[in-house]
Design brief:
The chain has about 300 residues and is mainly alpha-helical. It contains 12 helices and 4 strands, in the order αααααααββαααββαα. α2 packs across α3.
């Protein structure tokens, strides 16, 4: 039965558990360091915040330590909320080591870019925002169709839409300088490096590439309807040049996105279950979820 499949029960494997554990550990470390900074505020600012003048004087650890410093309760609250929400999407798919590499590499690079841009500035920097923005971008390209509920919007919107809006807003704020005291440049670098990290090192996990409209879509391309005695459901497959596995089906017949017009074949069902196993049930599109529901109903009737 379909409900007996391991992927349908969504049992967490070691990779998933390690990823979730990594998110919680990072949150705990950030909170612990924040509590230390409350107890020793001057020491934290003098030693751990990123100060271009002090960096030139030999405090080369500051780009790293500044990632775990925060300027107030609201600052750490929103950063850790974002890390928990978006990290919960990304970390189980990358595993603990992969997620830690994403978090540390992108956060550190964002701080270094800010340092270069502020080399002769009296400004100082703290916060995990660059790394959190990178995790947000990674979540968007890995699970773009995931519905998100935001505080100020009364209806769910897709995660990829959230990422696009956030990124565009950061660019506008950086150009107009409407948020003095906020390092929008670090946020922008976080978005870009988060996307590049997944594209370079975890390309198989990408379900959406925001640059496809600019460089041409190189992933799955729908095939025309088959009239050659192929799949009875009208689903066809084409191998993606960017992956070494079939990228997905093409809905080419029937109404309501091609559902309910034919029975779900074993090949179609295997594709959906493999996708759930690889990237989680939240990665299924609305069409694929409907097809999966149809398969369940067919099995219950048989």
């Amino acid at each position: 039965m379909l409900d007996d499949r391991d992927y349908m029960r969504q049992r967490p494997d070691n990779k998933t558990l390690e990823g979730r554990k990594c998110v919680l550990v990072l949150i705990a470390v950030n909170v612990a360091v924040y509590l230390f900074s409350i107890a020793q505020p001057q020491l934290a600012v003098d030693l751990l915040w990123l100060n271009p003048d002090q960096f030139r004087g030999g405090m080369f650890w500051q780009p790293l330590t500044a990632m775990f410093m925060h300027g107030g309760f609201t600052h750490i609250l929103f950063n850790m909320w974002g890390l928990y929400i978006f990290g919960g999407i990304v970390a189980p798919r990358l595993g603990g080591k992969g997620f830690l590499a994403l978090y540390m590499a992108t956060g550190l690079l964002g701080n270094l870019v800010w340092l270069a841009a502020s080399w002769n500035s009296p400004a100082i920097l703290c916060g995990a925002s660059g790394a959190v923005m990178a995790v947000t971008a990674a979540a968007a390209v890995m699970a773009p169709e995931t519905p998100m509920l935001l505080f100020f919007i009364p209806f769910p919107i897709k995660l990829k839409t959230v990422a696009i809006v956030f990124f565009a807003l950061e660019i506008v704020l950086e150009i107009t300088n409407k948020q003095p005291g906020v390092a929008n440049l670090v946020h922008i670098v976080g978005f870009v490096t988060g996307y590049l990290f997944i594209k370079l090192f975890f390309r198989r996990e990408m379900l959406w590439d925001p640059l496809n409209p600019l460089v041409g879509h190189r992933g799955y391309r729908p095939s025309p309807p088959r009239n050659d005695g192929g799949s009875a459901s009208g689903w066809t497959y084409r191998r993606s040049p960017d992956r070494d596995s079939d990228y997905g089906p093409n809905f080419s017949t029937g109404s309501d996105y091609g559902y309910n017009s034919t029975r779900v074949s074993q090949r179609e069902l295997d594709y959906l279950l493999d996708k759930i196993s690889r990237t989680g049930i939240n990665s299924l599109t609305e069409q694929e979820l409907q097809r999966l529901k149809q398969a369940r109903e067919e099995m219950r009737r048989s």
